[in-house]
Amino acid sequence: MTFQEEILQGIPANLPSKALYDATINHAPKRKEILSAEEKILALRNALRYFEPQHHETLIPEFKEELEKYGRIYMYRFRPKYRMYARDINEYPGKSLQAKAIQMMIQNNLDYAVAQHPHELITYGGNGAVFSNWAQYLLTMKYLGEMTDEQTLVMYSGHPMGLFPSHKNAPRVVVTNGMMIPNYSKPDDWEKFNALGVTQYGQMTAGSYMYIGPQGIVHGTTITVLNGFRKIDKEPKGNLFVTSGLGGMSGAQPKAGTIAGCITVCAEVNPKITKIRHSQGWIHEVIEDLDLLVDRVKRAQANKEIVSIGYLGNVVDVWEKFDQENVTIDLGSDQTSLHNPWAGGYYPAGISFEESNQMMADQPELFKEKVQETLRRHAIAINKHTAKGTYFFDYGNAFLLEASRAGADVMNPNPTLGREFKYPSYVQDIMGPMCFDYGFGPFRWVCASNNPEDLQKTDAIACEILEEMIKTSPVEIQQQMKDNIQWIRSAQENKLVVGSQARILYADAEGRTNIAKAFNDAIAAGKIGPVVLGRDHHDVSGTDSPYRETSNIYDGSRFTADMAIHNVIGDSFRGATWVSIHNGGGVGWGEVINGGFGMLLDGTLEAEQRLKSMLFWDVNNGISRRSWARNEGAVFAIKRAMEAEPLLKVTLPNLVDDNLLN
Question: In CATH, what number does 440-642 get?
Answer without folding.
Answer: 3.40.1770.10
